[in-house]
Amino acid sequence: MKTLSVFDSSEDITSFVQGKIRGLIAEESKTSLVLEDDPEKFREALLRFEKWFELPSEEKLVTYYSCSYWKGKVPCQGWLYLSTNFLCFYSYLLGSEVKLVIPWDEIWRLEKTSNVILTESIHVLAHGEDFYFSMFLHLNETFVIMEQLADYSIKRLFDKEAFQREPALSDPLQITKRGLEAHAKSDQFRGFFRLPKEENLLEVHECFLWVPFSHYNILGKICLSENYLCFASQDGSQCHVIIPMREVVNIEKPDSTNKALTVCVRGKRALRFSEVRDYMRLSNTIRSRCGISASPQHSASSETIRGECQSLINHFEDNPEDVTLMVGQKDSSKAVSTEALMTVFHPQDVENLDPKMLKEKMKEQSWNIHFSEYGRGTSMFFTRKTRDLIVRGVPEALRGELWMFFSGAVNDMATHPGYYTELVEQSLGTSTLATDEIERDLHRSLPEHPAFQSDTGISALRRVLTAYAYRNPKIGYCQAMNILTSVLLLYAKEEEAFWLLVAVCERMLPDYFNRRIIGALVDQAVFEDLIRENLPQLVEHMTDLTFFSSVSLSWFLTLFISVLPIESAVNVVDCFFYDGIKAILQLGLAVLDYNMEALICCNDDAEAVTILNKFFDSVTNKDSPLPPTVQQAPVSNNVKASHGCVDISELIREAYEKYGSIRTEEVESSRKRNKLYVIQTLEDTTKQNVIRVVSQDVRFTSPQLDELYILFKRQHFLSCYWTMKSPVLLHHDPSLAYLEQYQLGFQQFGILFSLLEPWAFCSPKSTLSLWVFRLIDENQDGLVNFKEFCCALDTLYTGSFTNKLKFLFKMHLPPAFTGSPLHLKEQKIQPFIPLTEDSSLLSRFAAFDLPEDGVIKKSPERGRGKVDLQAYLKQWQNEILKKEETIKDLPRINQSQFVQFTKTLYNIFHGDPEEERLYRAVAHVTSLLLRMEEVGRRLQEPSSPSDSKKPANASSAAVMEESSSEEVCKTPESADAPTPRSSSSSQDAASDLSETEWSFSFEQVLASLLNEPVVVGFFEKPVDIHMKLGQAKVAQLKTKANK
């Protein structure tokens, strides 16, 4: 009751009690979960997981749950195991076993659903099949963990740019349930308070904050990170405040009576937190992070400290233009503009008393009153009243300042003094693909505005865009960034515009500005979901909502700047910086709602586009104080007659009234759900394009190519699953051509080729696999793409006898074959066989000069490297002009190469029912070729050899025949390690023929083998590709597990 006495109204008491009850329920739930996470039980579950699913030992089990999997209409009770890379389920009831292993990176949909049969279940869509899981004890917790693991996998394997910004989850072997939960909370914390990506949520304390403008305590939570102290009311929308630790000047002695502590910040402000359970520890933590001593002497001298700061504070209050010094900003370079372009090109006339200027002054006065009550600067209170002022429109003079505060860019700039000036100096004069694109688009950025008809505005825009491309080469430059940056430069100083652009591209609109614009596509999918939910009439008439996705892309990419007049668009940008993407979604719904009747009457998409374009042309800002020279094209009489003028403030107000109930948490959840589908759709498009290209050069059917692509892509990812910094992740580059996006190094190739090649003659790490790899690696970059892989398999499966033999023949010629295999022990093949995936890229020819990281970049980074277009065109021309190779073009095979060629044939024939006949046929062909070569050499000699030489030469072919005959009785393994007798025979024969090196042409080898029907029959015998694909699909993971 003592606690309740601090409240002024019964509503506050009710809110407090409800919050306490929810807190007790949460604590009880935590206790039950702790009991569930018993180490002994988890160890038992881990053993079952390893036994049932036979995954590699590196695969880390994160958690497990009891549930039911619905197989049709029959529930199978069992256990759901969630590991780093897989969703697994196992059930064994009444002699029926059910086992599922689904990689997270192959999931298309993950959502909570309910229907008549299943009140609450989790729906998973993968491989075109639906999986439903229900009867969870903690369904919400299970779903959140599944969502986090799926999102982690997608980011790590497909969305490298986003993943590299999250070093906490970089090691897949260290992923834990607790770590995922902590990461999710930190992510939500940063998103709500718009904090830099380096901040992590460290502590949360429930407490009351004394709100001076309302004169009562408000219940909420203190959230503490490395450099920020934040508070949010219980519902989040009532009030929140952000206090950078750099702004804290003192922590007053805690009050033990009310468990309270008072935080003093710059600007003669103090925040009092009461009923903090662990108030002493929190006080000491804040002191240590702010560098404030907790000694009594220091406490006594707090007034002295404040006195020393006061003169500086007073100076800034009297000279606001020097405020950049408060955040440690270095003197800007003379080349960098220090004024907003609107200030330069449209200075406000103080004596102007027209109605629009008077209204502008009234807005400024309203904001000044708000500042006096709620504070101004980084520690300002954000309340519902703040949003109301935003909706009514921000004054021109305050726009840049408020954008900086609401976006969190002010904190980025404060913690990186001088960073922008350094970037400008470093990027000055650089020539990259990004700078070329920037130069092309500079004069397309708000060309009607006077600021961008002069060198001042163009130069500032060039500096900001070039500096950002230099800072973030993964993005570099993307169209629409120029339009957005132009508007930022109108209202913010140049350096502020740069940090605003950083906030938009890296926090507020993640993954928007890259080659695949994944973020924009995801938000379009969210927009479609909201249309279905809020505009059912429109959905009934236009069942295909993809039209709205195509027409709204520019709305999201440019925040409506490209479709609205500039004086109206800036009001939308105001709302965006305060409410994030939620404001754009709300406005999009309001636009469709306003034009509902006209859209329903449309006959086609073109008519709908015309209606929306006319509507946007009719939107005005009646309160804008900008002169006609700055405002965009006036509305024509025809548009006025058909639509009438629509005021942007009214449109925004209507959007907030009708759709303001959309919660940010719901938007973020929808983003995660739709991101899976968007990325998988893009991946499927890539697959279809690759298959379409490859199908023109092979005889495999489309379904077979589809299965081969899935195996190829999975093999690519198998090397990424359990490695922290796998070079394979470097191979995947979505900015490359479709065929080059997924490639295999030697180790990956060896495993997959051994599973799919038709005759089982290659083991994953054999020299034969290496020779095949080198043969099909046409550009000799140490990587094999899908087309090269399929063409090799197509030759071995469906090629003619001649083509198959030619493939094997070329395997034993440079560059595929190197060294002398007659002396394998002395040769030591280790340099050709990488022992780990990290060294796989180094198994290349010695002629290549590799970069330090061992990775040959197939395309330069977008921001830094200059693309050599002439080299690409030359390569393309060579491919077009490349004529088909004939058998006469093949070089001759020498002695050591031919011996290895025969051993390869023995390996291929091993295990065949006709094995003995095949071996004898090869021995016969070998003997025949040697005799033919000897006869040919005799005919070419100028004089007949001496009688003493004849017996030795005559006997050489017989010795080689004897050696070849002995090979019939040996296995392929013994062929690589000859018995002493056969080794001595081969060496004797070789010594006899060493005086004159012998070689064979492909025509000779082909003609000799064509005379052996058993050999021809073996190579022309069809191999069941469907069976091989099925076996490879099952064995792919087990091969990795048994390595």
List keywords for this structure.
8-stranded antiparallel beta sheet, single chain, alpha+beta, metal-binding, 44 helices, calcium ion binding, 7-stranded antiparallel beta sheet
Polypeptide structure, described:
Helix 29 (702-721) packs parallel to helix 44 (1025-1041), helix 38 runs antiparallel to helix 39 and helix 39 (950-967) runs antiparallel to helix 41 (980-993). Mean pLDDT is 79; it is low at 26-36, 295-313, 320-334, 633-642, 820-867 and 944-995. Strand 2 (74-83) and strand 3 form a beta hairpin. The strands form five sheets. An eight-stranded antiparallel beta sheet has the order 12-13-14-8-9-10-11-15, with helices on both faces. The chain starts with 9 loop residues before the first helix and ends with a helix. Helix content is 54%, strand content 11%. The chain contains 44 helices and 21 strands. With 1043 residues, it is of the alpha+beta class. The radius of gyration is 36 Å and the shape is elongated. It comes from Gouania willdenowi. This is TBC1 domain family member 8B. Involved in vesicular recycling, probably as a RAB11B GTPase-activating protein.
